[in-house]
Every structure is written in structure tokens, then in C-alpha cells.
Specification:
It contains 19 helices and two strands. Strands 1-2 form a two-stranded antiparallel sheet. Strand 1 and strand 2 form a beta hairpin.
Length: 448
């Protein structure tokens, strides 16, 4: 295990150079992430930035969804000139996101180096360059990039806390990282519960780990809980009656959506949008169910949250087989990728085009993806002291549990790829020919 060093080294310059080249390549691909996602984070960050500059009134400031992305993009938008167009703001946001994502890769190298070796740290970064999904998500004003950075920061903090448990620095970074992760992706809240279960396990089964880290991890999780609750209450206070949208209502809406995802069509992996799957039986039934629940609300004068909650509970007990199958399929779906922004027959990437070209690229992407997942399983199988990597695997479990029970998209699992790729690198490095290749590359990429 190596001590973390943040001095500028050859590997830092290589990461910066390759990231810049890959950003230019991904920018020119025929398929891209939605520039503004579902527009909410962009609009709310824009209004907050313009309010801070005195360009709009306080009545425009609101935080209706996760507060993390708003806090993340506001500084970038604040730097833009007054009266900047949405496209100009997008440029500021993407440049800022690129910088933060590159910093995340620098952290990932140091995390891998700290827990394993410089070679594993290098392989962790190489896996991201082989499958640059982080660049793809950097091109949208969405929650994925800030959540990705948050977990990198949290794991970096844990790597420092693990090696120097009596120093506050690592615990502070760990607290800030998990806190900002939850602010960006409130669905990772289950991580706190899993953390307390891990502490309980250590108390009974691993006294040495509990003695060194148990109380400090508990204090970290409690701090995250209080800080998160405080920010969420502040968001509610800022928004008040300016919008009818809120986190609880969004949760029930998404969970209702998820009850029809892979319900009777477990092999339909098309994106959940009307222009992509208008002929989908599950999609059509979801719409019909929403209309039926709306009629119930109108007749009984009950709130949408009450009606949706009752439906969700009853549906699980009425259709246990569908519920179980959906959970399994969603967990699988969260780890595979499809290109939804371009129809297969209109796909073109250089000489590769058409339906066959589309499925060739999909197969190539997911073949790499599967190898990465297998590497992580190899690490988990071989590692005898998994508790010291609790944050790596628990964040993946937390996201799988939440989205397996509600609604799943591969992008919701994206932040956990920080942990997944590092574990995969540690596992793949045990394979001799991969080790030899990485050792050879490391001679040129890493200062010895």
C-alpha cells in the first residue's frame, strides 16, 4: 500500500492530456447525453446564479429536486456574463464538469494506489479511458457528474482515514464526499443504513476493525445524516409554495413508473419515453394506471401521495412474481448500456452504420462493461478482508436495492463506477497477462 501523494507527476499530465482528447472525440460522436437533462437542474441553478448576481428576484429561486446539482452548477453559471443564453451556460457548465471529472480521475488513481499499488491505480484510470462513460455524462447538466465526483472524494477520504485513522483530514473528506453524494443522489441514502449494519457486524465479528474505525465511521454517518437533513429542510424553506413539486411526490411518481418497468415485457430494454416505446405494453399500462389513480384522487379527494402509496403496497402483494422478476431484471439493466438517442437504422459512426453497425457497437461496449464487472467479482471473491472496502461495495448495493425496488436506468448506477472500476482493476491485475501489460505501461506513465 502506498502513501497518497498529490504532487504533480507524469501520470497527472497523462490523465489530463488523454481526458482532453477523449472529450473532443466524445463531443463529436453522433450520440450524446441530453444537454440539459430534464431541464430542472439547469433552470434552478441558472435562477440561483442570476439571483446571486442580482439579475432575477428571489421568487425565481427554488430547489424542487436533489439540491446537489444546483449547488454544483451554480458556481459555473455565476461565472457566465449576465444575460447569457442557455447554450452559453451549457458551455460554462460542461467546462466546469470536465475539470471536476478530471480531478475525479486523479483521485481514483490515488485511491487505487493507496489501497493496492500504483499499477492498480493506473489500471483503474485505464478502464475509464477504455470505456469513457464518464466523458459521455459530462456533456449534460445532470446529476451524474457531481455524484461521480462525490463518491471519488468520499473514497479518497476513506483511503486517508483508513491509513491514518487518528488524523481528521480523511474523515472530513469522507464526510463531505458521502454528504454531497446523497445531495446529488438522494437514492444513496440507503448507504447510511448499510453503514450502520457494517458497524454492527464489526462490533460482533471484527473487534479490531471496530476498535480502530467503528466509532469514527458512526460519527461520520451521523454527521452526514444531520447535514443532509439540514440542507433538505433549507431547500424546502427556499422553495415553499413556489412549486408543487417535492422530493416525496417525485419518489412516488418514480416508484409507480418502476412498477411497470419490465413488468410484462422483461426483455424490452428501450428507454422509457413515449417517442421511443409508444408500442410498449408496459408503457401503455403505466399511462392507464396513472389515469386510473387520477380518477381515484378526484373522486375521494385524497392526496396523490396517499393514492400512489396505497397502489404501490397493494401491487407488490398482488403480483409477487412480477415484483421479484422486475427486481432481478432491473439490477441487470442497471449495468448494461444502449444508445437511445439514435435509432438503429439511422446509426452511423464512421464506416460503421445501420442496424448491424448499431448492434456491433452495443455488443462491443457491453463486452468491455462485462469484463469490468467480472474483474470486480474476481476481487470480491479473492479478497479476504472485505470490510475495509465497505464503502466500495456498499454504495453499489445501496443503489441496486433502491432502483431495483423503484425505477432503474443505467445512469443511476453511474456514480458507483468509481468504486466498481477500482475493485475491477484490483481483480484484473491478478490475471498474469493483464498484469504484464499494466506493468509495462507503468514504466512510462508513472514516476518511480
Amino acid at each position: 500500500m502506498s502513501k497518497i501523494n498529490f504532487s504533480v507527476k507524469r501520470i497527472d499530465l497523462i490523465i489530463l492530456l488523454i481526458s482532453s482528447v477523449m472529450m473532443l472525440i466524445v463531443l463529436n460522436l453522433p450520440f450524446k447525453a441530453k444537454p440539459f437533462g430534464d431541464i430542472t437542474f439547469h433552470e434552478e441553478a441558472k435562477n440561483l446564479a442570476f439571483f446571486l448576481k442580482g439579475d432575477v428576484g428571489y421568487d425565481k429561486v427554488m430547489i424542487t429536486k436533489a439540491p446537489g446539482p444546483i449547488l454544483f452548477y451554480t458556481p459555473a453559471y455565476f461565472m457566465a456574463p449576465s444575460g447569457a443564453t442557455d447554450n452559453q451556460l451549457w458551455v460554462y457548465g460542461v467546462v466546469f464538469t470536465f475539470i471536476i471529472t478530471t480531478i475525479s480521475l486523479l483521485l481514483i488513481f490515488r485511491i487505487g494506489t493507496s489501497f493496492f499499488s500504483k499499477e492498480v491505480g493506473l489500471l483503474s484510470v485505464l478502464l475509464f479511458f477504455i470505456f469513457p462513460i464518464h466523458i459521455y455524462y459530462s456533456l449534460g447538466i445532470i446529476a451524474e457528474a457531481p455524484a461521480f465526483f462525490s463518491l471519488a472524494l468520499a473514497l479518497y477520504g476513506w483511503s486517508k482515514a483508513f491509513h491514518s485513522p487518528n488524523k481528521m483530514t480523511g474523515w472530513i473528506w469522507l464526510t463531505l464526499g458521502i454528504w454531497f453524494l446523497i445531495l446529488n443522489r438522494p437514492n444513496t441514502m440507503l448507504l447510511l443504513g448499510l453503514g450502520f449494519l457494517i458497524i454492527g457486524y464489526a462490533f460482533f465479528k471484527n473487534k479490531e476493525f471496530f476498535k480502530i474505525y467503528g466509532k469514527k465511521i458512526m460519527l461520520t454517518l451521523l454527521s452526514v445524516g444531520f447535514l443532509g437533513f439540514g440542507i433538505l429542510q433549507l431547500a424546502k424553506e427556499i422553495t415553499k409554495t413556489k412549486s408543487n413539486d417535492n422530493q416525496e411526490g417525485l419518489l412516488y411518481y418514480v416508484a409507480h413508473q418502476g412498477r411497470f418497468q419490465f413488468r410484462e415485457e422483461p426483455t424490452d430494454f428501450r428507454f422509457w419515453e413515449s417517442d421511443i416505446r409508444p408500442d410498449s405494453k408496459d408503457y401503455q399500462n403505466w399511462g392507464k394506471s396513472g389515469e386510473a389513480l387520477g380518477i381515484i384522487m378526484a373522486k375521494t379527494n385524497r392526496t396523490s401521495n396517499d393514492v400512489y402509496r396505497e397502489f404501490l403496497i397493494n401491487d407488490v402483494f398482488e403480483h409477487p412474481f412480477w415484483f421479484t422478476r422486475q427486481f432481478v431484471v432491473k439490477c441487470f439493466y442497471g449495468h448494461v448500456y444502449f444508445i437511445n438517442s439514435v435509432k438503429p437504422e439511422k446509426f452511423q459512426l464512421g464506416p460503421i452504420h445501420g442496424v448491424l453497425g448499431y448492434w456491433f457497437i452495443i455488443l462491443l461496449i457491453n463486452s468491455i462493461n462485462i469484463i469490468i464487472i467480472l474483474g470486480a467479482f474476481l476481487f470480491l471473491f479473492k479478497e479476504k478482508n472485505l470490510i475495509q472496502y465497505w464503502l466500495f461495495w456498499s454504495v453499489i448495493i445501496a443503489l441496486l436495492l433502491f432502483h431495483g425496488l423503484t425505477y432503474m436506468e443505467p445512469r443511476y448506477m453511474f456514480p458507483s463506477r468509481v468504486a466498481l472500476y477500482i475493485m475491477s482493476a484490483a481483480g484484473l491485475y491478478n490475471i498474469k497477462w493483464i498484469k504484464n501489460k499494466v506493468d509495462f505501461i507503468s514504466k512510462f506513465a508513472i514516476n518511480k
